[in-house]
Amino acid sequence: MLKRLNIATNSQTEFINITPQVENEVKKSGVKEGVCYLYIPHTTAGITINEGADPDVKRDILNQLNNIVPFNGNYYHREGNSSAHIKSSFIGCSETLLIYNNQLILGRWQSIYFCEFDGPRNRQLIIKIA
Which residue from 3, 44, 65, 97 has the highest number of Cβ atoms inside 10 Å of its Cβ? Predict the structure, then answer.
């Protein structure tokens, strides 16, 4: 099963918890044991798994990424969004999760985040469940 989900972002940089949407697609798939592949087909966005209990964690990650890769730097890319491309490369554009008993296997504190680095935009998440 291949599914495309639309994600609307609201800020230049933000982490959006997409765990409920992904869990819903796994449930609908009926797959009892398998793999859930998540792919972001964008060069200025990414996906990561990290703590979902404390919102300060995602805020800290974004703040540090912005410190390491400032919005305005000595960049050559003419579109003016080089920092977004670099952050996307750091975070990555895919994740792989296991499915057991028709549920994602995630740690107690783990959540799945869509990472926007050049928003606000309308984005896509591609989900492959096998």
Answer: 44
CB contact set of 2 (below 8 Å; sequence gap of 6+): 126, 127, 128
Which CATH code, of 1.10.10.410, 3.10.129.10, 2.40.30.170, 2.60.120.460, is assigned to 2-129?
A: 2.60.120.460
Strand-pair partners of 6: 124
Tell me whether strands 103-104 and 14-17 are parallel, antiparallel or unpaired. Answer: unpaired
Domain boundaries, the chain: 2-129
d(C-alpha 26, C-alpha 32), whole Å = 9
Structure confidence by residue, pLDDT tens digits, 57-104:
999 999 999 999 999 999 999 999 999 999 999 999 999 999 999 999
Q: What angle do CA 110, 91, 119 make, to 5 degrees?
A: 100
Question: For the whole prediction, is pTM greater than 0.85?
Answer: yes
Helix and strand tally (H, E) in the chain? 3, 8
Radius of gyration of the chain (CA): 15
Residue 104, token pair as written in the block: 């994602």
